[in-house]
Design brief:
The complex is a heterodimer of chains A (115) and B (140). By secondary structure, chain A is of the alpha/beta class. Chain A has one domain: STAS domain (Transcription Regulator spoIIAA), CATH 3.30.750. Chain A is built from four helices and five strands; from the N terminus they run ββαβαβαβα. By secondary structure, chain B is of the alpha+beta class. Chain B is 36% helix and 29% strand. Chain B has four helices and five strands. A five-stranded antiparallel sheet of chain B has the order 1-2-3-5-4, covered by helices on one side. In chain B, α1 runs antiparallel to α2. Classes of the chains: A alpha/beta (115), B alpha+beta (140). Chains A and B meet through α2 and α3 of A and α1, α2, α3 and α4 of B.
Chain lengths: 115, 140
């Protein structure tokens, strides 16, 4: 059983992925497929809401690394929100906060897409 | 108790399907000996990264191969040993990943070893015969 799931929502022209559970080398492909299909559908403004994300390993971070350039070069971004401290710590250890928009909540991320 | 050693072992196939099981195995031991949540999280992540590297690099995603995992502790240390019979992989040759460069070159991975080094106090790699042995130690 995969202890990971993704739900997709839309707010104006921003797509929000609510990810929950444990993101590791086994479940990373689900996130990868979700991001790929957004890019295929030309949805480049993406928020990944991590409020229910309990755990992340480097394989999960690798997915964000693989698509950020493409999305940004197409005028969009992948913004991450609502991380718990343990999950944030993993992003922080690998230096993500300087290169990614990691924000407190969805509202803040939606506002930053408007600017 | 000083001098008391507790050791547990787990043998699993080299497949990412077993990642959660492997994490839970080490977390249960860490909980039993009363570690705090931060330490337990770090141990879960370190074993995940080491086991994932074996699956991908030592066995190149051949799920029939076995990985033997041992966790033990005494009053001063907790140690985790992972053993495989795949291609040798030396995690001591590592450098801090240049995230921007990796993103530009569309390279992912290579971050696991760095994380293990950050999360654990000692990491040793040995090849004994045909067996790769990775031993990770956390000071308690």
């Amino acid at each position: 059983m995969k202890n990971f799931s993704i739900a997709t929502r839309q707010k104006n022209n921003v797509t929000i992925l609510d990810i929950s559970g444990e993101l590791d080398a086994h479940t990373a492909s689900q996130l990868e497929n979700a991001l790929k299909s957004l890019i295929d559908d030309e949805s480049y403004s993406i928020i990944v809401n991590c409020s229910s994300l309990d755990y992340i390993a480097s394989a999960g971070l690798g997915v964000f690394m693989a698509y950020i350039e493409d999305v940004r070069s197409l005028g969009g971004d992948i913004k991450l929100t609502n991380m718990n401290d343990r999950v944030y710590n993993v992003f922080d250890l690998l230096g993500f906060p300087t290169l990614y928009d990691i924000l407190e909540d969805e509202k803040e991320a939606l506002t930053s897409f408007e600017n | 108790m000083a001098g008391t050693k507790q050791i547990q072992t787990l043998s699993v196939e080299a497949s990412t399907e077993h990642l959660a099981e492997v994490r839970d195995f080490v977390a249960a031991h860490a909980e039993n000996i009363g570690l705090n949540q931060k330490d337990i999280s770090e141990i879960r992540l370190a074993v995940d990264e080491a086991y994932t590297n074996i699956i991908k690099h030592a066995y190149k995603n051949t799920p029939k191969e076995k990985v033997n995992i041992e966790i033990g502790s005494d009053s001063d240390h907790l140690w985790i040993t992972l053993m495989d019979k795949g291609k040798s992989f030396d995690p001591s040759s590592y450098s801090e990943p240049d995230l921007m460069k990796r993103i530009k070159e569309k390279k992912r991975g290579g971050m696991g070893v760095y994380l293990i080094r950050k999360l654990m106090d000692q990491v040793q790699y040995n090849r004994k015969g045909h067996t790769n042995v990775i031993r990770m130690v956390k000071n308690l």
